[in-house]
Design a protein that fits this description.
The longest helix has 15 residues. Strand 2 and strand 3 form a beta hairpin. Strands 1-2-3-4-5-7-6 form a seven-stranded mixed sheet, sandwiched between helices. The chain has one domain: Gcn5-related N-acetyltransferase (GNAT) (Aminopeptidase, 3-Layer(aba) Sandwich). Helix content is 27%, strand content 32%. It is an alpha+beta fold and 160 residues long. The chain binds coenzyme A. The site of coenzyme A has 19 residues, from strand 4, helix 3 and helix 4.
């Protein structure tokens, strides 16, 4: 492993927001979350939100967030800096969110993903998410979203 590339996961804090926005703007140039958006999400920690970041010697390399209301969890975001994709980080971040969903006794985890985002769909399918519906125009005209769901068992045990 190259020096400075060991990645650790930890809870997201307010001082991570500028770096997260930079990654956000690079990955989602059409509709990036703003600093205000991240502040609003972090204001929900720990009541309804769980947010994680991945960090290595170069700084912030990814983040992920979960919203949980009434035992139903929603993946709000999963993002890995472009130069660190394809090395298992998205999977580690998603596993962190699923662990949080289980701690909160969620019965299921839902998410929306762009219909043409095959990389993210493969990530979710690999963790047992199944496509349950299509939302036409969810991301704008002609930009459809798939809704995917992972059912969790009683008391946080994975029911698959
Ligand atoms: C989607 C994303 C978070 C995945 O993160 P990552 O660190 O690259 O993913 P991982 O290396 O952990 O790969 C996990 C799985 O995803 C799939 N995957 C990842 N990149 C892929 C690609 N380019 N093509 C196809 N499948 C891919 C693989 O099935 C992989 O499984 P494997 O470990 O058995 O090979 C990352 O590509 C990203 O940030 N994309 C831009 C932002 C985004 O689209 N976020 C999701 C919004 S819903």
């Amino acid at each position: 492993m190259t020096a400075g590339t060991e990645v650790r996961l930890r809870p997201m804090r307010w001082w991570d927001i500028p770096d997260a926005v930079e990654i956000e703007q690079a990955l989602f140039p059409a509709s990036p979350w703003t600093e205000a958006g991240f502040w609003s999400e972090l204001a929900g920690v720990p009541a309804t939100r769980d947010y994680l970041v991945a960090q290595d010697g170069t700084g912030l390399v990814g983040y992920a967030g979960l919203l949980t209301v009434a035992h139903e969890a929603d993946v709000q975001t999963v993002a890995v800096r472009a130069d660190r994709q394809g090395r298992g980080l998205g999977g580690r971040l998603l596993d962190g969110l699923l662990a949080a969903a289980r701690r909160r006794d969620s019965s299921q985890v839902l998410l929306e993903v762009a219909a043409d985002n095959t990389a993210a769909q493969a990530l979710y399918a690999g963790r047992g998410f199944e496509r349950i519906s299509l939302r036409r125009g969810y991301y704008g005209p002609g930009l459809d979203a798939l809704v995917m769901r992972l059912r969790l068992g009683e008391r946080g045990v994975d029911a698959r």
